[in-house]
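JOB MANIFEST
job_type = single_chain_structure
chain_count = 1
residues = 138
[input]
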Amino acid sequence: MALPNLVFCDTSFFYACLDPRDTNHARAQALVTESASIGATFCTTWDIISETVTLLRYRRNYRAALAFLTDVKPGLRIVTYGDRVRDEAEQIFRTYARDHRLSFCDAISFVVVTSLLDHLPCFTFDEDFRALGLTVLP
């Protein structure tokens, strides 16, 4: 399968890339290598950056969190958004979070991917993205 030149990245993907103990580490590393070979751009939001740094800080350590900010963040295309996206995300959260393990950050990502990024494919190991109908790679 050919990878796209532009992909939206979730916390689960970033975390798997950086934690050798993560069950998806090898697959995430392979995706990074494959993406680099075609010059793909990784998109994300500040919410995901915050969530990733926090997860790295508490599950790994301060150095791992800082390495993400220093080494990974500068190469990302950070998608910004306004109140409309947050309002839509709140409605998505209210509608789906009761029956799915959907975080508010996931709801924001859904709205960003569907309304700002024209249904861009996503690198994630979070099944909620697929359950919401997003295109998930791998």
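[summary]
The radius of gyration is 14 Å.
The mean pLDDT is 95.
exit_status = 0
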